[in-house]
Specification:
about 200 residues, two-stranded antiparallel sheet, 5 strands, about 10% strand, Dihydroxy-acid dehydratase chloroplastic, ILV_EDD_N
Length: about 200
């Protein structure tokens, strides 16, 4: 008796996509002009974000301003350190420059630690982790406020190295081994020279 293989039900075949629809999709995906306010537009354009827009009106923005890119100007300003006490004025100058360029600038600050003051005391126990606090606070404001760009102004000590932590950083890797003596097939690293000098 011949066995019959089960047949799978035939699936409906979709017809060709209309040319007009393809043109609309292509136009939406590729634009000649980049949308500079693509992040802030999430709160400045939808009518469902009327409450967010009301707050922005309250800080002085106009209808025209809501269509502009928003730039967060972050600094580690505080009065207790000579390296940082002038950063508020610098941030104000940067904000004004952003506005002259046709965008909206908003200043905000983060915490800071002066190594020069805390050196030799238990205050240095707070210095290293302040980098993460600074980076996290910048990321928090940038993400929550939907700013389109960031300009950061550090002062000195750990707050200088903390700003790149709030950005996307791709490490290039360690140095490759290099062949120095082809006849002996020796491979060394530059760091080996430091080790040799240290030993001799």
């Amino acid at each position: 008796m011949q066995s019959m293989a089960p047949t799978s039900p035939s699936l409906p075949v979709a017809g060709p996509v209309p040319r007009r629809r393809l043109q609309r999709v292509r136009a939406a995906a590729v634009s000649d002009e980049p949308k500079l306010n693509k992040y802030s537009a999430r709160i400045t354009e939808p009518k469902s974000q009327g409450a967010s827009q009301a707050v922005l009106y309250g800080v002085g923005l106009t209808d025209a301003d809501l269509r502009k890119p928003q730039v967060g100007v972050s600094s580690v300003w505080y009065e207790g350190n000579t390296c940082n006490m002038h950063l508020l004025r610098l941030a104000e100058a940067v904000r004004d420059g952003v506005r002259e360029a046709g965008m909206v600038g908003f200043r905000f600050n983060t915490v800071g630690v002066s190594d020069a003051i805390s050196m030799g005391t238990r205050g240095m126990c707070y210095s290293l982790q302040s980098r993460d606090l600074i980076a996290d606070s910048i990321e928090t404001v940038m993400g929550a406020q939907h700013y389109d760009a960031n300009i950061s102004i550090p002062g000195c000590d750990k707050n200088v190295s903390s700003f790149p932590l709030s950005l996307l950083l791709q490490f290039s890797g360690t140095m490759e081994w290099s062949q120095c003596c082809r006849s002996h097939n020796l491979y060394i690293k530059v760091l080996n020279y430091y080790m040799i000098i240290e030993r001799h």
